[in-house]
Amino acid sequence: MKTSAKTSAKTSAKTAAKSTGATHTRQRWEPWNDPNQRPHVEISRVTKRFGDFVAVDDISLNIYQREFFSLLGPSGCGKTTLLRMLAGFEMPSQGQILLEGEDMSGVPPYQRPVNMMFQSYALFPHMNVEKNIAFGLRQDGVPKPEIERRVAEVIEMVQLNAFARRKPHQLSGGQRQRVALARSLVKKPKMLLLDEPLGALDKNLRTQTQFELMNIQEETGITFVIVTHDQEEAMTVSSRIAVMDHGKIVQVSTPAELYEYPNSRYVAEFIGEVNTLEGRVAAREGDHLLVQSQEAGCTIKTGPSADEPAGRQVWIALRPEKVQIALEPPPDTTTNCLSGEVWDIGYLGNLSIYHVKLDSGKMVTATQANRTRLIERPITWEDRVYLTWPPDAAVVLLS
Amino acid sequence: MKQGASWFNIASLVVGFLFLYLPIALLVIYSFNESRLVTVWAGFSTKWYGEMWNNEGLMNSAWVTLKVAVVASTFATFLGTLAGLIMARFGGFRGRTLFSGMIYAPLVMPEVITGLSLLLMFVAISLDRGFVTVTIAHITFSMCYVAVVVQSRLVSFDRSIEEAAMDLGCPPGRTFLQITLPVIAPAVVAGWLLSFTLSLDDLVIASFTTGPGATTLPMKIYSQVRLGVTPEINAVCTILVGLVAAGVLVASLVTRRQELRREMEERAAQAAP
Amino acid sequence: MARSAKEPDPRQEVAYLQGDGAAAGTLSGLHARLLLLPPYRILVTVLKRLGVSGRNAVIAIPYLWLLAFFLAPFLIVLKISLAEVVVAQPPYTPLFVFVEDGFIAIQASLENYLFLLEDSLYWKSYLSSLRIALVSTVLTLLIGFPIAYGMARAPKRWRFALLMMVILPFWTSFLIRVYAWIGILKKEGLLNLALTQLGLISEPLTILNTDIAVYIGIVYSYLPFMVLPLYANLEKMDLSLLEAAADLGCRPIKAFWVITVPLSLPGIIAGSFLVFIPAMGEFVIPDLLGGSQTLMIGKTLWSEFFNNRDWPLSSAVAVILLLVLVVPIMLFQRMQEKTAKAEG
Does B144 reside within a domain? Predict the structure, then answer.
């Protein structure tokens, strides 16, 4: 409760502060910021223990209708356990889960209006594609003609018409994935749970399937909850992401907020690449903070930030792509300027990555888009370089 | 060096399989011997098969054995499948260690102990010894083999298939019948075959637990073997070995072919875009 | 259509009762319909309060069977081993006797166990069984390992056929396989015939009815039990480990001893248990192939029971044999549980 309330309050404050001319005219779909919306799923103070091990630790979370919600975290962070509690395979040790206001405790998986797509797809090996998809409808005693119609519909949707009579072992990985998706969608569940749905696919197919998933989600209007450890996947598909660690939710935000306004070093480092510089608050200047950093060897003027007492330890997060690298020093080298020596260069074609060793010994990464066609770039190993950034690029992290 | 190692492998295989098969081969060959003496080859003949057929005592006990084997293996398959399911899927419950002990111990328990203890118990509850007691005894030890076969199939198959069925609205009991059972069917059939042959084979436990009128074929063979080797017994043994071998070979070749076809189809599916 | 979880009473109660009903297919449908009838519902509720759920009922079926026909018989053996032999039906004294004032007296005697200690026949039988079982296990391992190794390193397309060839004798009758050796090993048997005709011996060898014949019989009968777990283990081994060893300067023979053998230890142990434990109590092999001087406890028990009709004494023999075997049996169970878990 505590985590969630705090995060959402902060999030809305930030979004309000952040919405500039370009975006505030456009109507945005953000049911989580609308106090009149009732959440579709309410997870309230749920804890799950296995013996002494606490897999899910006092989590509260609201998910809204039509959301594509991601649970993101490293393996063992409790995301799959949380998903399995939504499906009904595990019962919470404490707390409750409400689906459209109804308490789900004690309701077994086969009586929940929720379906799941399994990481292994879990297709029934002795049934063909049609029978696999029809299975759930048959359990509910849906009349035969209707079963046939609805099965044909989803088979069409996932483009498996040619394979309807094949058995799972006669399908490729991508086809199996689509059968699994169709099978869990055909019952029109109130919520679809996806456990690492694309984990078994190779990279190209995965990217393509991510967009297919998004289209299907929009078409059907079903709430999707996806578990993944792949931050790129979560960023691509989600309306919101909950980043988890050790059974707790660290931050719940939209992908963009998560990237640009992480609330901790854990989130900043988990989503994309980041440089963190340790320092102490020196003073406040308008809505900026001035942070004195030994590691950086300069004063850092941060972006808009909440007030923090002078002397408090903070970390400054700087995304590598927001850092400019130059051979010439800027006019003021005492504020927002790092200087060091080029230690390593990684050339990726579209980008170049520079690892710069600061005078304090700290390594900092800067990436530059290679806009001009050059074989030899002017900056090379052991050059003395200066790193600068626009003031609002520096984010203050308290933990 | 590699060549030498592989020669060694071939040699050990040849010697090993000669050792395994020569005795049975000789037994089969001498069942067709005209002479009553085992060591003298007096020409090909099937007369011992005829005599065996006319030996009423032998035929009766063969019939008893068959009945016991069919009934016992069917019950054992039922109980053993349940036991395997419990071991693989039910997780912890009170008395699980004892249960697993009672499943694994009969696999290695000396037959004299099993036989003696069952007999003493049948006497203690004054159950008349005969067909029923032999069958109960056979169910008890062969259900453990079935349990182990079924359990190992269950642990190697993806549990989320059962979860998926439940997620789609199928209650646990129906999930077992519609999903689990069809998938583990080959193991269940193998378990039935195994308990059938175990029952067909058993001498010691049957000797303890049987009563008048329920003499099994192994007991009959045993009592005749003690008197010496006869071509007639060779003939009985040849038929038994032949039947079991044919059954096992057919069953495994069929499953093997299915496996190979499946592998090929899988490869074809993966190769397609 | 998805079912709604919340229903007015009594359907909600019904849903709860259906909860973990592991009843089978159409049965569960019937069960669901019956639950709408109050008497049935009350019965099910009461059973559930008592902890009798569908799940427990499923556990109970095989559990009770094994308790009744596997565990209970052992307790009876233990009981009878404390009784005395009498000429009666059944031929032993009861453990509990009703004495005149309505009390029950326990009449137990350790006489049978004392007798086992006194009479050298019995402890010699135990020791000799132990020796024969140990020696046979080692022999089976020595013969089985090269076979399993050869199978595991054979070309892939042969392996199925080879495996079948090992499994086939395992399925055929044990008695017949032992019987087949009588015709070979006896004095005028095929082995002696062959050896004489080759001119290797002039006098026929006496093999049948000696301990050697027993060793041959045990090794032959139990060979598949050794080969199968060994093969399963060796086949799984990653051959690049041997290449790595060779790359690091280890000769093939040495690599076999320092890589292959240690890695196949679980297979060796499993196979040895599968041979040793049943061989300890073997009856058919020493009876048919062994001689009168071959002492094995299974044979002693058999003759004590069938020839001397001394049920209490043979029970005591069985109890001691079980005590000897309880440690290896428990180790075996532990190992089986572990491998079952590892496979999952």
Answer: yes
List the domain boundaries for chain A.
2-6+37-268, 273-397
Average pLDDT across each block of 10 residues of chain C; the chain has 344 residues. List them in order. Answer: 40 45 49 71 72 78 92 90 76 68 68 85 90 95 93 87 86 84 85 85 85 93 92 89 87 88 91 91 91 88 88 90 86 79 63
CATH number of A273-397: 2.40.50.140
The number of beta carbons lying within 10 Å of the beta carbon of residue C242 is 16
In angstroms, the CA A192 to CA A69 distance is 10
* Residue B7 resides in a domain: no
- Give residue B273's pLDDT: 56
How many domains, chain B? Answer: 1
Domain-embedded: residue B200: yes
pLDDT at residue number A198: 87
Cβ within 8 Å, pair C25-B152: no
Domain assignment of residue B245, given as a range? 36-271
| CATH class of the domain at A2-6+37-268 | alpha beta
Please, are residues B191 and B141 in contact by the beta-carbon 8 Å criterion? no
* ipTM field: 0.89
Q: Give the nearest chain B residue to A85 (CA atoms).
A: B167
* Beta partners for residue A369, in sequence order: A351
Q: Indicate the SS3 state at residue A337.
A: strand
- pLDDT at residue A10, as a whole number: 42
Q: Calculate the alpha carbon distances from A149 to A161, A175, A240, B101 in Å.
A: 13, 21, 34, 52
Closest residue on chain B to C150 (Cα): B9
Is the CB of C70 inside 8 Å of chain B's CB atoms? yes
- pLDDT per residue over B166-198, tens digit each? 999 998 888 999 999 999 998 999 899 989 989
CATH architecture of C111-343: Orthogonal Bundle (1.10)
- Please report whether residue B13 resides in a domain: no
Contacting residues for B193 by C-beta, under 8 A, at least 6 apart: B73, B247, B248, B251
Regions in chain A scoring below 50 on pLDDT: 1-23
Least-confidence region, from A343-352, B137-146, B264-273: B264-273
What residue type is assigned to position C171 of the chain? Answer: W
Of B147, B122, B148, B146, the C-alpha closest to B134 is B122
Subunits with at least 3 CB pairs below 8 A relative to chain B? A, C
Q: Specify the CATH number for the domain of residue B62.
A: 1.10.3720.10
Q: How far is B186 from chain A (nearest CA, A)?
A: 12
